Amino acid sequence: MIDKIIVDGYCRAEAVVIDHKISFFGEVNPRTGKTTEDIYIGGKALIFPGTRGSTVGTYIIYGLKYYGHEPACMIVYEAEPILIAGAILADIPLFLVKREYKELVKHVKNKEQSIILHERGREVLIVE
Prior knowledge:
Largest sheet: 7 strands, mixed
Oligomer: single chain
CATH topology: Glucose Oxidase, domain 1
Strand order of the largest sheet: 1-7-6-5-2-8-9
Number of helices: 4
CATH class: Alpha Beta
Number of domains: 1
Order of helices and strands: EEHEEEHEHEHEE
Helix content: 25-40%
Distance between the termini: 13 Å
């Protein structure tokens, strides 16, 4: 399912889907870990299409880590440099899923609770 591991790491977390590209600057509060839609992303396997917007987004992602509200991992359809830099700085696993992204989103949305599992050093993403 993973097309590319951008930042490897362990992830076992409840999945949350955001259906649109995120601008971390202005749409995510690093002190609370909540989006402007009141979705808490701390400790979650955050699934979203990608990012848009300001280069400050890198520092917002790092701020999430600093304040203890970082996602357990991020799974995206597109990975821009702002997102990649933020994930590297904050040491948040980041996975690119292109071929099966729609199926992953559909599966997570259709289940009451989905758990994403990835072991460092493996190419497999498991959805329970």
